[in-house]
From TrEMBL:
Sample GO molecular function, one term: metal ion binding
Descriptive protein name: Peptidase M48
Required cofactor(s): Zn(2+)
Pfam families registered for this protein in UniProt: Peptidase_M48 (PF01435)
InterPro entries: Mito/Outer_Membr_Metalloprot, Peptidase_M48
Entry's Gene Ontology cellular component terms: membrane
């Protein structure tokens, strides 16, 4: 049984030091992660349950337990599993995190996001917006990287503080948990985290049959929308042009560009949504 009280006291004693370390860290404020992997999993489960509840109440969660959605999740699972199972051995927590992906029915939103512990959410608007399956794979790989590299936990720790996050693990502050879950899709990552997730999206796809610069294709198309309509992906630094160039440069280095397009799963998903 988790000795939560002991851990809470321990981490609370470290919190003041953590604040100082964060203040003295890089300009992006990445700080020092005080959460364990098991804490990631526990917090992610709570945040995901709250996120599911929120979107289910709005009638927007495409429930994976509903047999009517089996085919949609089969198509999506084909894409996700290619990334997870052919990621060139670069996933640190392939066997630790749950790695489930759920669809939020909102055609007006071009976004995807990850909770700690490997829970991924993708909006129907993003799926319908994409032209090719490697773009979807690239976006999902980017979110998988945020979870696997534990960027989400670091960003939440920076924004809310370690003591508050630990209190959520103990079942306290349910209103705060709801607020965190509601804001997860708008979480602003640092320059370093975004750049690292971009690079790992290429690495993860390099072992698949997808063109490994798929995320760049999404960014290129998104730029045509104009600044006011661009998704959260492009509302944070670094500059989208620099991100595209960096992704394409990494893909060229790994020699995994220009693979034959197979859009069967994306086309199937679009037809069902």
């Amino acid at each position: 049984m988790r000795q939560l009280l002991f851990k809470s006291l321990l981490f609370l004693s470290l919190a003041a030091g953590s604040a100082a370390m964060t203040a003295c860290s890089s300009g992006d404020g990445d700080g020092v992660l005080l959460f364990s992997v098991q804490d990631d999993i526990a917090l992610g489960d709570k945040v995901a349950a709250q996120t599911d509840s929120t979107y289910r109440a709005k009638g927007q969660l495409l429930d994976p337990k509903d047999s009517r959605n089996n085919q949609a999740y089969a198509y999506l699972g084909n894409v996700v599993n290619k990334v997870l199972n052919n990621s060139s051995g670069q996933l640190q927590h392939r066997n630790d995190f749950v790695w489930d992906v759920k669809i939020i029915k909102d055609d007006a939103t071009l976004n995807a996001f990850a909770s700690p512990g490997g829970h991924i959410y993708v909006y129907s608007g993003l799926i319908k917006f994409l032209d090719h399956e490697d773009q979807l794979a690239g976006v999902l790989a980017h979110e998988i990287a945020h979870a696997d590299r534990r960027h989400t936990s670091r960003q939440l720790q920076q924004q809310y503080g370690i003591s508050l996050l630990l209190s959520l693990l103990g079942g306290d502050n349910p209103n705060q948990l709801a607020q965190i879950a509601a804001g997860l899709g708008q979480l602003k990552f640092s320059r370093d985290f975004e750049s690292e997730a971009d690079m790992y999206s290429v690495v993860y796809l390099s072992g698949t049959d997808y063109a490994c610069d798929g995320a760049a294709g999404f960014f290129i198309k998104s730029q045509s929308l104009g600044e006011a309509s661009q998704p959260v992906f492009l509302s944070t630094h670094p500059n989208p042009d620099n991100r595209i160039q960096a992704i394409q440069g990494k893909a060229s280095e790994l020699k995994c560009q220009g693979k034959t397009q197979n859009d069967t799963n994306l086309a199937g998903l679009k037809n069902l949504l």
